[in-house]
């Protein structure tokens, strides 16, 4: 399969595995910042339901909140991520990697606040407790080289690591060891091991 690549505007070039779904929920990175941090998330709407259009609709501010009782709590929320990796491995891009997507919220990394300023956010379609699909990990191995060729990424964290106590994703179902091995991250670039994994 052909490799993924970003164009000069920070969008993945045309590829059978890629969909563009531009979100209005973004702005410029401040002070010429570039992305040095990758943040992994998970999302499913309604929770635990996969394959629908609700995540795309949320990031494009056109979610039908009346379609499911749980969705009403999201009314008025303006969020986005750079990418969504669907269960079948398809990749949806919402925001140019040159821009600041609104994915991390109140957060900090290495004593620096506002992780949106200097990060790229990837949403995995899933939940904290349901194992992610092999196709999703395979999609990440396609996506990561394109991101690293363009941006000086030097670390990866879960949302849970940059917003502890507030967020729990991508959760224990995310295989950090596989992700690190498949994408050639050094141990020091990955989140600290939990006590049970040491």
Fold blueprint:
Elements: E1 18-20, E2 26-28, E3 37-43, H1 54-59, E4 83-85, E5 91-93, E6 99-101, E7 108-109, E8 112-113, E9 119-125, H2 134-150, E10 155-158, H3 159-162, H4 176-182
Protein model, in words:
The protein has 198 residues and is an alpha/beta fold. The chain has one domain (20-190): Lysozyme-like, CATH 3.40.80. Helix content is 17%, strand content 19%. It has a six-stranded mixed beta sheet. The model has no long low-confidence stretch (mean pLDDT 95). One of its GO terms (biological process) is peptidoglycan catabolic process. Its EC number is 3.5.1.28. It is found in: Cytoplasm. Residues 1-32 are annotated as: Disordered.
The CATH first-level class comes to Alpha Beta
Overall average residue pLDDT: 95
Strand order of the largest sheet: 1-5-4-9-3-10
Model regions low in confidence, pLDDT < 50 over at least 5 residues: none
What is the H/E order?
EEEHEEEEEEHEHH
The termini sit apart by: 37 Å
Going by CATH, the architecture would be 3-Layer(aba) Sandwich
Number of domains as seen in the coordinates: 1
Shape: globular
Strand content: 15-25%
Examine the coordinates and then state which fold CATH places here, giving the name of the CATH topology. Answer: Lysozyme-like
- Largest sheet, if any? 6 strands, mixed
Q: What is the CATH superfamily classification?
A: Peptidoglycan recognition protein-like
The total of helices stands at 4
- Radius of gyration over C-alpha positions, nearest whole angstrom: 16 Å
Structural class: alpha/beta
Question: Could you give a quick summary of the protein structure above?
Answer:
This protein is an alpha/beta fold and 198 residues long. It has helices spanning 54-59, 134-150, 159-162, 176-182; strands spanning 18-20, 26-28, 37-43, 83-85, 91-93, 99-101, 108-109, 112-113, 119-125, 155-158. The strands form three sheets. The chain has a six-stranded mixed sheet with strand order 1-5-4-9-3-10. Strands 2-6 form a two-stranded antiparallel sheet. A two-stranded antiparallel sheet has the order 7-8.
